[in-house]
Amino acid sequence: MANPFPLEPSLWAATAAAPPQTTRLEASLSTEIVVIGGGYAGLSTALHLAERGFKPVVLEAQEVGFGGSGRNGGQVIPGLKYDPDELIAKFGRERGERLIAFGGGTADAVFGLIDKYAMDVPHIRNGWIQGAHTQEGMDQARRRAEQWGRRGAPVRILDQSETGRLLGSERYVGGWIDGRGGGIQPLSYARGLARAAQKAGAIIHTRTPATGLAQERGRWTVKTASGATVTADRVVLCTNGYTSGLWPRLHETIIPANSFQIATRPLSDNLRRTILPEGHVSSDTRKLLLYFRLDHNGRLLMGGRGPFREPKGPEDWAHLERIVGKMFPQVKDVPIEYRWCGRVAITRDFMPHLHEPAPGLLIDIGCQGRGVGMQTAMGRAMAEYVATGDEGALPVPLSPIRPLPFHALHKLYVSAIIAWYRLNDGGL
């Protein structure tokens, strides 16, 4: 695997709470449940299983939060990619309402766990603003606010003036605000989940890549790179944007797009008062969306899509640096301190997918860029399903693994789409 920190450490790696004490798996063992993947989904699953009295074993190929969980923008945004009325139209009234309730509660799941376990995680919950960059985007914002408002969510429409004041940029014609959203230090949160899971009884082995998965006589055996194995009754696979060939063709069901981010040095107090002055987090209505926020030390973060390949040099982040200067001219001369990226698992229908291709094997894949809240809540749902066998605990139905047609060509397609949108999606 290519080095995920190709040039400099990420902001989050540089400022996170210390990692939990973990070990590499050296000797084979037998357990009830093994969870593969030490990101939000895997750690949340392990934590909620341990709370129920199970003793899950987590296998992580690198370190806790190594993948997208430790390298995202730290925005906690409720909801799914589809608006409530779209979910009902797509899935029917009963399933749609369940999905709406699930999506609407994802931010609560994150902040609830941070509070419950007193995690050492810098966080803020003053709301998420979606800025509309065109009148079409403003129409979309009105629909979303209306649909969530009907369901009692703390949302409201923002006119151009208020959007400019709350964001600190004049680039938007308006927008809407959802008071349920907020921001966290994402790697500290992953490490906090791991500590909570360990305290509840889970065992976490890092630097332990799973290399093989097979079932025999009703039990599963997970082979690891060291030669040690884990034998278990149940396996939960949660590798998302870093999915490899552990299960046939699973990696062909997603596009693992790279999300690129930069962070300035901490802003002066005067500059801080001009950008997101009330502590909101934000992403916009572009097809190739931009997302930005201030971190707990007052750095301005800007994120968006970049090359599909792993980055080769600082020039791969240059488009984000240009965007910062255009959106926030007051900080155009503030140096960039950090550049990093992480993979986001995108499915064809922009929904999370759950698969059970064999008895005792549950697979979760697809985060669509909202993984902080969605995968935390998904872990809770998967733990309930594993513990009870009740499919009603799952927000989406179990489905067959369906590889994307011509998957090998999708990297070229995505790269072309990114280049097209960069030229035509809002003038930045």
Automatic annotation (TrEMBL):
Keywords: Oxidoreductase. The keyword Mitochondrion does not apply. Transmembrane segments: none annotated. Residues 33-384 form the FAD dependent oxidoreductase domain. One of its GO terms (molecular function) is oxidoreductase activity. It holds the Pfam family DAO. One of its GO terms (cellular component) is cytoplasm. Gene3D superfamilies: D-Amino Acid Oxidase, subunit A, domain 2, FAD/NAD(P)-binding domain. InterPro entries: FAD-dep_OxRdtase (IPR006076), FAD/NAD-bd_sf (IPR036188). PANTHER family: FAD DEPENDENT OXIDOREDUCTASE DOMAIN-CONTAINING PROTEIN, SARCOSINE DEHYDROGENASE-RELATED. This is FAD-dependent oxidoreductase. The lineage of its organism: Bacteria, Pseudomonadati, Pseudomonadota, Alphaproteobacteria, Hyphomicrobiales.
